[in-house]
Amino acid sequence: MNDWRSGYMRMTVEGPQSTWSSLLYWGLCPLSFLYGLVMRVRSNLYRAGLKSSYHASVPVISVGNMVVGGTGKTPMVDYLVRYISRFGVRCAVVSRGYGGTYRQDVARVDTSDGAVSLTAVEYGDEPCLLARRNPGVPVYVARKRALGVQAAERDGAQLILLDDGFQHLGVQRDLDVVLLDSRRPFGNGRLLPAGRLREPLSALQRADLVILTRSGPETANPLHYDVPVIRSAHQTEKRLTTLNGEVAPETEYRGKRCLAFAGIARPDEFFQSLQAFGFSGVDEISLADHQEYSQDVLKRLHGACNNYDLLITTEKDAVKLSAEDFPKPCYQVGVEMIFDDFSPLAT
Question: Which residues pair with residue 236 across a beta bridge?
Answer without folding.
Answer: 335
